[in-house]
Amino acid sequence: MARGRRGVARDRQGVARDRGQVAIEYLGFLPVLLIVAMAAVQLGLIAYTAQQAGTAARAGARSASLDRGAQDACAAAVSSWLAGGTSCGTSGGGDEVTVTARVDIPSIVPGWDFGSAGRSATMPVDH
């Protein structure tokens, strides 16, 4: 194998060889793949948190309709790693009670804040 003027490896016919080109292209594309993967995981976390907020609101409304208080039921209804960022507010009167649950959305990128997911549920008051 001979080297040409510019130091490019050439085979016997004088054709330049592209050794390692695929590896370099892969390394250039790797950050894009990582960003897409992190975005997919973050979207999954947002959807999961919204689902957990709905579960917390229903559990809190059920508990408040039985006159047991909503906050403890809300926190107990979500996953343990989300329970610390869960808050419930109760409103209503008469024959029904409405509970609004808010759950903080976790972030996989430190320093980014996605806010919280909120859901409401209404239940009839049990007499």
UniProtKB/TrEMBL annotation:
Entry keywords, A to Z: Membrane, Transmembrane, Transmembrane helix
TadE-like domain: residues covered: 20-62
Listed InterPro entries: TadE-like_dom
Chain segments annotated as transmembrane: 26-48
Stored Pfam families: TadE
Protein name as annotated: Pilus assembly protein
Species of origin: Streptomyces althioticus
